[in-house]
Amino acid sequence: MTEQPPARVAGYERRFNTLFAQYFDTLGTTLDTPSFSRFTPDCVELLRDLSLRGGKRMRVVLLHEAARLVTAEPVEGLDAAALSVELLQTHGLVHDDLIDDSATRRGGPTTYYAYREKFPGHPRAALALTVLAGDLALALSLRVLLEARLPTEVRQAMVEVQTRAAADTFVGQIVDLERDFSTTPPDDEILHAVADHKSARYSVLAPLRLGLLAAGEQPDAHEPGLSDYARLLGICGQMRDDYLDLFGDAEAMGKPTGTDIREGRHTYTVVRLLSAVSGAERDFVRRALGDPACTPQTIAEIRAIGEQAGVADRMRADMRQYAERARLVAESWRPRRREDAVAFFEQLPRWSVERAA
């Protein structure tokens, strides 16, 4: 493999960001919008702003590398698939930030808070317009596939992949909220199931399937390897997010830390923290858990407690363990798939963990 993951990822990111900007430049001319409407262009502009604001474009990377498992030649349909997966991601970000009542995302205001500022005297309108903005992004993610210049059967298969991925993600969001209503912290089996439905199936499995479809292969011929790899990489990704929420750098992430504590969320980090401490420290964490007024100082104290109790080290070890399991799944593809693409999938899990840690 001539390029390590960071260089390969950066190349895809640069190219796709240009493509995404061009897509939004022309989107206004393709939407059937009444001439009097001011809210619709505003909505599109907010979606554009959020969509183009940062992100590693790992879903784009995954679908391109999935196609490279089959061929090194240019593949028609990857641009449409890339737009689709990132528009679905934009939908998820808009709704996630609404669910979490988050003020910032990627160093700027969330769509919800942008609407709250735009309509300070109309909170219900701000809420409704945020929901509709997310819904529009979802519809656009499917429309871009339906309009792709691909054989009908390929377009239909891609739309089915994205529709199933969206449905799985919605179920994941539901069980994610349900998890936090439990009176006892969930075990890893529950946490893994949430990570699989909420994240892995749309962020990893769907891009892999779309890349293979674009390259002329049936994804079912690659099972169970695709699902196993996606689930393990998704668990790594969710652990990374949970780890960064307490132990990460807020300035580097572009959003505050401690959100999971304030929201009372039973994440990988929170569950491990509760199991690692006792007595006064556990009571301190318990009192903060679910307190929306929890101060940055309290979060810093909880972070220090977690570091002292070895929770940060354990989270990094767990991420590496699941990254290694994902690597072994990718290694099993070697006899049948192109060497350099397989090597990328082997290296990707550990690289993702190391950059998180």
UniProtKB/TrEMBL annotation:
It holds the Pfam family polyprenyl_synt. It comes from the Bacteria. One of its GO terms (molecular function) is transferase activity. This is Polyprenyl synthetase family protein. It comes from Streptomyces salinarius. PROSITE patterns: POLYPRENYL_SYNTHASE_1. Gene3D superfamilies: Farnesyl Diphosphate Synthase. CDD domains: Trans_IPPS_HT. Belongs to the FPP/GGPP synthase family. InterPro entries: Isoprenoid_synthase_dom_sf, Polyprenyl_synt, Polyprenyl_synt_CS. Keywords: Isoprene biosynthesis, Magnesium, Metal-binding, Transferase. Its cofactor is Mg(2+). Its EC number is 2.5.1.-.
